[in-house]
Amino acid sequence: MLHIAICDDEQKFTEQLHELLKHYEQEAGELFRITTFCDGSELIDHYDTTIDLIFLDIKMNKMNGFKTAELIRQKDSQVSIIFLTTLTQYGLEGYKYQATNYIIKPMKYARLKSEMDRWIETHRKNDVSSIIVTNDTGKYKIPLKSLRYVETFNRNLLLHTEDENIVCYKSMKEMEQELCDYSFARCHTSYIVNLFYIKGVKKLEVELITGQKLPISQPKRKSFMDQLTQYWGDML
């Protein structure tokens, strides 16, 4: 199922786009969950990181589409955004926010179908496994390819990604189970590491390509090295 959001302060247009998406859903044999928002502030206040694609109107009264996109990118770097506009000159500015495209209103079904066909094909090719993390500051979608390692932190977990460190309230056992089908391994009671980032191993220490060093506990060394050896063998 693909989660699609529509954010537009014109109710009539929102209803029209919703109907067009339902028509496309049936024609293409897809399954959509469609959520609508009447302005940018509502979308930000109730942002859901399971959203895959946002149709975002540029000109809205309370919060315009560009400001909304800027705030969305602080929460979610992966979601696709298609800007909606009545003026062509707005379109190019949207690419500053990694917009997928822009569509001129009013919208015809043929234009929507063309855009959705293109987006779904690209989305399926670039689909990135991710985990959802919730803490006191909000909800985050973390692509696994950006997660370097996980460590215990004040009875919680700290997820070290390429961009930031995020606190997670799950247990290490829960996190290990969630990551077990991917290229992650438990090297220590307090650490789970992404095997992609490992540069080398010296005795009881892992060196990452970033220069960081993590400990390996003696009880977990054999299991960890077996996983790493298999991973490196698969990569050759």
From TrEMBL:
Q: Which molecular function terms from Gene Ontology are attached?
A: DNA binding; phosphorelay response regulator activity
* Keywords recorded for this protein, A-Z: Phosphoprotein
Output the SUPFAM superfamilies linked to this UniProt entry.
CheY-like
Q: Give all residue intervals belonging to the HTH LytTR-type domain.
A: 131-230
InterPro entries, alphabetically? CheY-like_superfamily, LytR-like, LytTR_DNA-bd_dom, Sig_transdc_resp-reg_receiver
Outline what the protein does: May play the central regulatory role in sporulation. It may be an element of the effector pathway responsible for the activation of sporulation genes in response to nutritional stress. Spo0A may act in concert with spo0H (a sigma factor) to control the expression of some genes that are critical to the sporulation process.
Protein name (Swiss-Prot/TrEMBL): Stage 0 sporulation protein A homolog
